[in-house]
């Protein structure tokens, strides 16, 4: 109703429709020229520019990838600088001649002792193997079926876990105190 | 050509039932003539070992070497944090006691370090004294041959007293082999059938570790069983002390003590696979 009145006022003055931008009729608000304008910036240069950017990025990525991955440092092989501090050096004692001689002789004794131990171990193992071989031969003579059953590997045996000897035997019903620790090991990723 | 092809498989087919026939004979129990069969008098003893629980004592040369190594390591090392702190504290004390001591310098950071390194050491010593580890060697338990806790530094073998023929002998625990079971199952049965046993053991593999043949005395010899074969199996005692039962005919012995209890020929075969390392 208001728009018709407005239009009649316009007509009233001049008796023809005034097409001025300032008095654009409300009906045509939604379809006026400036509002109808779509972004007309579709220049052909832009997609090319975007493509160029992408190619440059890809090339940079490839160059970065070509670099071989950094090796993870082995912390055990790097002497921490704390240990190379001069103030930490001990005064090296002077060894007497007898003592150094004694040490050399003890080393040789140790060598001989260890060799005897090793040979004894090897011999014991060989004896045990020989005993087993004889047992299997006898079993073969007795019955083929049991021999084959004896040769089958035992899947339940592996993995075999046994706790080795400690310095003192375990105290029965010992309640060990709880402890806290913070794990500060460095984890490297390639 | 075709005939040859046919002949080969036929030949194999013919030999298979023959082999089966023969093997069936060899497996059958007493009652057959001529063939050597697996007599049911075979026994499967089990060699149950309790491995050492504590480390063995060092021999004299080992002790000497240990001390020497310790000294060399000490000489070649650098001072640790704790030792540096001890030295610093000693210096501070000596400076305090000197006449020209300027307390203002020191007390700027003096409130923090009331705890001296020596005090820390004393605290640590106290803590260590509060903890009582179990005794390594207990003389009374060592002499008790039936206990599995004796001689914790050596590996022990279980012996049981069993009747063989007419005599009571000390042997590794055994039972007779029965039809239809493998030798290892017989050995497992031997372990579980011991009176008041309750031993948990892990058997090391399906194969026997030793064999002992003996001929029965002529009184018991029959046509079929001239002698028996004894196949030994090895097992390791799993953790957890078995319940102590008195008057049970068991002995836990070290390898050196085995000779007192076993017969010489038996001992010769047994000691080969018992490793005392």
What does this structure look like?
The complex is a heterodimer of chains A (190) and B (277). Chain A is mostly helical and 190 residues long. Chain A is built from 5 helices and no strands. Chain A has helices spanning 2-14, 33-36, 45-66, 97-142, 144-151. Chain B is α+β, with helices and mostly antiparallel strands. Chain B has helices at residues 2-27, 60-76, 81-97, 103-107, 117-130, 139-143, 183-192, 258-261, 264-273, and strands spanning 46-50, 156-164, 167-171, 201-203, 210-215, 227-237, 250-253. In chain B, strands 1, 2, 3, 4, 5, 6 and 7 form a 7-stranded mixed sheet that branches. In chain B, a hairpin with a 2-residue loop joins strand 2 and strand 3. At the A-B interface, helix 4 and helix 5 of A face helix 1, helix 2, strand 5, strand 6 and helix 9 of B.
**Overall 3D geometry of chain B?**
rod-shaped
Principal-axis shape of chain A equals extended
Q: For the record, give the distance between the C-alpha atoms at the N and C termini of chain B, rounded to a whole number.
A: 65 Å
SSE class of chain B: alpha+beta
Tag the structure with descriptive keywords.
heterodimer; A: 190 residues; mainly alpha; extended; B: 277 residues; alpha+beta; seven-stranded mixed β-sheet; 39% helix; rod-shaped; disordered N terminus
